[in-house]
Amino acid sequence: MVQFPSPGGSNRSYGMGARQIYESLREQILRGVYNTGSQLPSSRGLAEELGVSRTTVTAAYEQLAAEGFIDVRQGARHRVASSLIGPELTANPQKQAGPGHLSNYGERLRGARRWPDYLPNRLKIDFRYGDLAPSDFPASVWKRTMNAVMAQRPARLAYDHPCGSRRLRQALQGYLWRARTVRCDPEQIVIVNGSQQGLDLCARLLLDPGDSFVIEDPCYRMAREVFASTGATPVPVEVDEHGIQTEQLAGVAARLAYATPSHQFPLGGVMPIARRHQLLEWARDEGAYVIEDDYDSEYRYDISPVPPLHSLEDHGAVIYLGTISKTLSPMLRIGYLVVPVELQQVFETAKQFADRHSPIAEQESLASLIESGSYENHVRRVRRLNGERREVLLTTMKRSFQDRIAVQGAEAGLHVVIWFNDLPRSRETPLVEAARYAGLGLHPISPLYHRQSGAGEADRVGLVMGYSALGIRQIEKGVEMLRDVVAQL
Amino acid sequence: MVQFPSPGGSNRSYGMGARQIYESLREQILRGVYNTGSQLPSSRGLAEELGVSRTTVTAAYEQLAAEGFIDVRQGARHRVASSLIGPELTANPQKQAGPGHLSNYGERLRGARRWPDYLPNRLKIDFRYGDLAPSDFPASVWKRTMNAVMAQRPARLAYDHPCGSRRLRQALQGYLWRARTVRCDPEQIVIVNGSQQGLDLCARLLLDPGDSFVIEDPCYRMAREVFASTGATPVPVEVDEHGIQTEQLAGVAARLAYATPSHQFPLGGVMPIARRHQLLEWARDEGAYVIEDDYDSEYRYDISPVPPLHSLEDHGAVIYLGTISKTLSPMLRIGYLVVPVELQQVFETAKQFADRHSPIAEQESLASLIESGSYENHVRRVRRLNGERREVLLTTMKRSFQDRIAVQGAEAGLHVVIWFNDLPRSRETPLVEAARYAGLGLHPISPLYHRQSGAGEADRVGLVMGYSALGIRQIEKGVEMLRDVVAQL
Q1: CA distances (Å), origin A366, targets A173, A281, B9, B361
Q2: What ipTM is given for this predicted complex?
Q3: Are A349 and A404 found together in one domain?
Q4: I need a surface site. Which of A47, A411, A441, B122 has the fewest CB within 10 A?
């Protein structure tokens, strides 16, 4: 899979130059993304994919060839030069450069594999998880509330409280109680820039190098990465259809556990109440914090709710994390933490040090939406829309593949996991690449696993299929394309 | 100076309860903000200041008295109980609580003194530095561009590039070259949530516990705090009227230096070219990075510009930091780093880990303002407005105090430093408190010093007087109030 830096952010019309293509490929070759001697995309295919002229791609390839990175063969696909790539290069692709040194944190980030899930692409249909359909966004209500907020003139333009708009925290207090039975004071709420900042603040405040943290396996990769970036060691605990296997926690020493009990990411299990109690008991015995990531709990189909961990315990071990990235938009960058009372001061200071506070206007606008009931109306509406998308995806997949697939985690959330019973794991890369050339974005589950093998289901090809950015017709078309790609594999 | 948590963020009408007042006072007593036996504000004065009823304040005082924190005397101001406050309490006021442990970073933040410069207040006139006048904000242009941005519908709602909107980075590239002779590629620009996040990313990526960093003395306090929060040790270097005394750097070993060469904060010196070269030479010899905080370089009066450090060197030792908090609004939370090429990847990853990316709409709106020339028109306009404010402040201060004051750092920026030649440092607290009771906000320079004494000018009372949030009439009125307070001191 060829990965390129964003050519344009939201300014999608910006064209990518030969130099950028050259640099991206060069970096990926140096990082060992391609094996020695492996084929590169055809210049025509790559040009189409990137929406640039073939000449541009050819220029990039010529530069790579001139520098000895690739072998060019007339009439055949170019290959990564077999002479070039030795293990010493892939092991430490970036040399220490520049006048200074990095911190240990910086060195860990230098080594971190890029996780470019923000890249725009030219795919016809993409089942990438986490994206939303712009048509779902309540554009006119949002515009109205933003304009009302912008029309307000504060006494001075000045910094706000680090934990965010008091009005939004009060509105969220009510919302969390109504929607999630989470009880807290507004003072316990910290408005953050999306759940990512919530995870990062938790990581910084709770983990030191050499500490351990419990993480689901498979898991939300950015959580694992951000906790590991502190220098702490992940302790992966296996996940089944009921979420993390809490019985495996006995004897595990760790400073914190990260869990997605409402809808395990990516496998989709809803954690039963007994396991919730087991997790909390472990945390109490261990003196550990539990970070409860409730990232998409608004989406629940045909099942009854289970109370969040946060409402099940009262001694301050749970840090609750919510977001509007799955209900309104990930581009707004608003999330919230509910922190135990004794951690309020350090989270407030950490947020102040991190960036003073989150931008005001969107916070006030969201507060207004929650106060008026528009937010909850909107959530009901998108729940229905996503329920329809899910239904279509499941029906067409079943019709197209019948017993060849197994579906996991469809009771909640905005994605399902599809296992291909008759496709061994070795077919994953060919499937994904063939799909990409056909204009279809597929996202395998395997990079989300910590254990590399031995897990029964992970020996098959598994896909994380997000549907929330697609229309009904696009979902049907995408499944058709998938059927054709699998047939030709 | 009594400090209270924000009662309402931007929701200013929210009233403060007795409990909040009680808790704030109790915390401040425990933290040693008040000396043993020192007087507390009168209940009437405090009630007025906070805009609450006197009964509310009395209830808070009664609770504090009942718990033995204060001594209540009929007909006299209450005092902090002399029996209570021992050094052991002030040294470690917060006990370790909760089920878990904090990281070393968390423990450092637990000990960090709060720096609540975001508190709303009921003052009639406040010379707090860093606030802007809402009437200066280009509200209609901003509203128009935000509406244009909100009307655009992207292909999907998805994460953007961690370094921010490509369009904004391109616009900033041009702006930085035109306005600041800073040359860079858009790929070197990282959009951050205000300069605070820029400082925090630098701190995390460049400093380890036990490292040293050079900091100006006196300095921008949040910079010192955020660098020190990594566990690194500040090496304060004295500042004179030409900025940091670079000749004192000889032999200093440090990983980075933080400097404000365009307009030293707070003393206001503009660093001459020779010192700039000396600083860069030191960095080169030491293998250190220099963080050039160009926080208010748009404001320059009667003096010719000196090129930024960034344009004076070419081997990648300078990290340039800019912000729109002083030109548009601190509430928008937009700043930008220009990082050396070899640090691009780690800054990109650090920003992605920190919060994925900054919110999109404001970035696009700012890009539009820069592209159309509105931003630079606006900067010219606010430069003129702030020049007028500065003129009025300097004239009225000179008229009111004549030779009793010395003015420092008036050539640039949005504040001046006023030294009271005949007020010894011991008069600082009485002056500030008396002003506060009169409804006037004054901000002494002393907390910005690292060295506690021995510095000549710091033996006098010095005030950092920001004028950018005030109208001409308010400035005149504020100076009048100041004159009265000083006269009655």
Answers
A1: 13, 36, 15, 15
A2: 0.81
A3: no
A4: B122
